[in-house]
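Mods, move this if it's the wrong board.
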Amino acid sequence: MSREQRARIDALLRQPPPAGPRSVEDIRAGFRALMAQMNVPSEIRTRTTTLGTRPAVLVEPAEASRPGTILYFHGGGFVMGSPETAMSLTANLVTRTGFRAISVDYRLAPEHPFPAAIQDTLAAYRALLDRGEDASAIAFAGDSAGGGLAVTTCLAARDAGLPLPAAIVAFSPGLDATHTGESMRTKVGIDPLFSHESLAYTGGMYLAGQDPRQPLLSPATLADLEGFPPILLQAGTNEMLLDDSTRLAARAQAAGVDVILDITADVPHVFQSFTGTLDEADQALDRAALFLRQHLRGVG
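Not the wrong board. Structure tokens:
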């Protein structure tokens, strides 16, 4: 049990933002400050690089890495975040699997609304393939908006005729821009991080007036997942976005896709970030690492 751990994290996430209207830069700065509190393993090496059309950060084990690449997409509602804010997740996957990860610094809204992010992540995947990496040695992973991108980039890759990655790991993914899941109602107030207003605010920046009822924006209800690789979806019961994962899992199952729906009780959105301070975070990342090792095990 980790009731005290969960209570501390819930209190941290419920701290009210500064009063008054907040600019995009204020929101981004607040997110950077929050994520700077997360634990990052020291047993890694990092360097900046370029992948496709965008900057990226290469994260490798301090010792020799195993063959295989995790292509990582950070969270932040398509408005905030960077490879640096997601480093606790990326680095923990690297240290737990032995694979290297490349985290893409895709363009953000409102300066670059939909479909800019997907264009950038698809270009990054195409660049890996063009370098000679085999799709069977690549897994997509991401958290929140980036978890959604792990799914929609796979859709875009299939539509472009590219081979699909070996696996997808999505932490608390955002998979429904229409915000019609039942948990959007039942988890109000229970979710310490989100409200209808906050989701509508950042979601509106990304949509920029476009119809959310399309597969690349709402795959949980609209995507054809036929032919997809195995998917691991992890979420917490305290999330307004919980049903994004449950509904995508049902669609995947109906399409004959191997899918694991991994739900942890009484934890918030992207709880996996709290490694070292929340037992469930470390346990969930161990399960994600096992999933990745199982599906990339044939490459080396």
